[in-house]
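Worked problem 6 (solution included).
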Amino acid sequence: MDRYIIFLDIDGTLVGGADFPFGGSVSEGNKSAIKKARESGHYVFLNTGRSYAWIQPKVMEELEFDGVISGVGTQAVMGDKILYEHPIEKQALEKIYRAFEGSEHSVLFGAPGNIYVLNPSGFLNNPKLTFIRSGEDFYEKCLKDKIQKVEIFETELLGTERSVGEVVTAEQLASMTENLCTYCHGWYMEGFPEGCSKAKAMRITAEKLGIPPKRTIAVGDSVNDADMLAAAGIAVAMGNAVPQLKDSADFVTLECEQDGVAYAIEQLLFNQ
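Solution. The predicted structure is:
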């Protein structure tokens, strides 16, 4: 049997937008298809833009999988084993902290085991998270951790055509864009180390498990999934994916709410 590795994005792929950002469950249809794939000898990895600690609890608790790539490829783990990691440099984090300290903009610093929030507001003003209330909090907690990713959230922009870059200062924007690779999704911006990507972590994981590139399957819906799909042996775009992913995909599956992951697995691995 030819063993494959399936790499699954989470938001908009495996889980819909209900109860963002902490909620969301994997459907029974997707769970069943993933279980079938694993019982047939294939590997299944989550490959998410979220930092590890930011992944929805129900996904981690209810879904059976082999490993996780998180933080847009800044860490790959299989069980308790770290296959790859590349946290953000401390100097870059300090520049971001100084630029946003005392502002009205909420900044999330995501690590494998914790979420730190500067200027908490909206859904980030949640006691489950660790607030950065002072320089001491930042330097003694956040800066000593392995930060995978930084995100700026502007919830008041949700549903509008305005973007984060229009409401932050030039200095604040530069602290992100000059030190990190960034994606702007309108109402929020995410930043992670240069040289990291979902694709790179995917290739490293497959190589360590002895799986050739042609037997990798990547499933995603967003712009930060484009490199992952381009590097996969079989690129799968969700039915709800952005147009550029659909145009370049080998296979377009059903939408997230229609169990598109399950449909892709059945069609590609079991021809059903």
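Discussion: The longest strand covers residues 43-47.
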